[in-house]
Amino acid sequence: MIEENNEIILKNYRIKIQTGLLHQLEEFIKPLWSQRQVALITDDNVGPLYAATVEKQLNKMNYKVVVLTIPAGEASKSWRQVQRVIELLAQNNFVRSDGIIALGGGVVGDLAGFIASIYMRGISLIQIPTSLLAQVDSSVGGKTAIDLPAGKNMVGTFYQPDLVLIDSTTIKTLPKRMLVEGYGEIVKCAALVGGRFWAIVQRVNEPEDIIRQAEKLIYASVSFKAGVVQQDEKETGLRKLLNFGHTFGHAVELLEDGRLMHGEAVAIGMVHVMAVFEQKGMTVSGTTAAISERLERVGLPLDAPELGTPAFYRAIQHDKKIRGDQLTLVYVKKIGEPAFFPLKTAELKNWLGAAI
Ligand SMILES: NC(=O)c1ccc[n+]([C@@H]2O[C@H](COP(=O)([O-])OP(=O)(O)OC[C@H]3O[C@@H](n4cnc5c(N)ncnc54)[C@H](O)[C@@H]3O)[C@@H](O)[C@H]2O)c1
User: Fold this and answer.
1) Catalytically active residues, by annotation
2) pLDDT value at residue 69
3) Which is the closest atom of ligand 1 to the Cα of 73?
4) Which residues is 163 bridged to in the sheet?
5) Nearest to residue 356, comparing CAs of 281, 297, 286, 269?
6) 138 lines ligand 1 (CB under 6 A)
7) Hey, what domains does the chain have and what are their CATH numbers?
8) Are 161 and 100 in contact (CB under 8 A)?
9) Where is the 3-dehydroquinate synthase C-terminal domain (predicted)?
10) How many CA atoms lie within 13 A of 3 on its CB side?
11) What is the pLDDT of residue 166?
């Protein structure tokens, strides 16, 4: 704990973004972690691509490494995998002074983070996110989770890692649809921040440009998200900004029943919530088109047939992010000027009227 200027900093950690970082782990990990056992948790897509590179360097640093591989995919965010991994940690005599490294996308990060937060009441954690979504979103903010049959991310903790290491070159091996999905999250942040960040997004006119501009895009997104999270760790106020596009997006995602990826649904949600505010004269004219263009250039979807249907309103009523009978729509008055619009859930349909 650090005490400074009447402020108490409970946990302070570094997020390093650098091309080729995956080959320079010693410089960052060794000063932080004393000799210990390390569980390298990865999945069966990422493991074959990157685990050997990481393991080799950890061995060179004299850590005793155990590689634990989970099946790739959302289904691994389960009690079954929690139990399996925790039992493997126990069988290998992991103690609280040992450590976990999460090497993978958001699924590995969420699961390994959750396990790190509960094994022996908390064991040290380093995140090495390899998907674009994990690099710009899930590895920053300390949220961990697994899913229940009743819903995604229903069980979880807030648990901050000791270090986050982001090597943007890993996104070169991502399937294109996942690369583009992660970029949707970046456009969302850029629209909220505006300025230089929005200018970088203007340079992305095809999916390959995401890779060309990756380091700048990731840095801008992470510094925005870290700033928000630092001010609002437990998501009570400012962090709600990050829900831009989520109210409509979640509903569409649910109704499309697995056909849309989360980031694709959020892209649709952003465009349509903006169209509503623009029609009502609460947003500078042309802002919706500017956001749509950025998303469309990389092939993100902008529309879904469910928008405005009775099922759509029912899905919004059941959104777990909506507290009581009140919801808050996030929009931008213009690029870089976000705003909140609180509304009674029951009044949403009337308020939207023909605008959706
Ligand atoms: N904790 C948070 O704050 C937070 C925020 C947003 C999303 N999430 C969670 O993150 C998850 C989604 O993240 P995701 O999209 O990274 O999913 P994911 O981990 O399933 O990764 C997507 C796919 O890409 C593969 N992959 C990852 N990196 C790769 C690489 N470099 N090369 C080739 N393949 C690679 C994975 O094996 C997987 O098949 C969801 O479970 C979501 O709930 C968490």
Assistant:
1) 121, 143, 185, 225, 235, 239, 243, 246, 250, 262
2) 98
3) 20
4) 14, 126
5) 269
6) yes
7) 2-173 (3.40.50.1970), 176-355 (1.20.1090.10)
8) no
9) 182-321
10) 1
11) 96
pLDDT at 239: 81
> Which pLDDT score is estimated for 1?
42
Model pLDDT, residue 10: 47
Is the Cα torsion angle 198, 204, 210, 215 positive or negative in sign?
A: negative
Distance 105 CA to ligand 1 centre (A): 3
What was the pLDDT predicted at 152? 87
> What does DSSP say about strands 37-43 and 64-70: parallel, antiparallel, or unpaired?
parallel
Candidate from 22, 41, 44, 46 with most ligand 1 atoms within 8 A of CB, to mutate: 46
Which residues have CB under 8 Å from 60's CB, separation 6+? 26
Name the 3-class secondary structure at 69: strand
Q: Where are the beta strands (DSSP E) in 105-182?
A: 124-129, 143-148, 151-158, 163-166
> What separation in Å is there between the alpha carbon of 165 and the centre of ligand 1?
15
Ligand 1 centroid to Cα of residue 50, in Å, is: 15
Atom of ligand 1 nearest to the CA of 263: 15
Residues of the chain with pLDDT under 70: 1-11, 233-236, 320-324
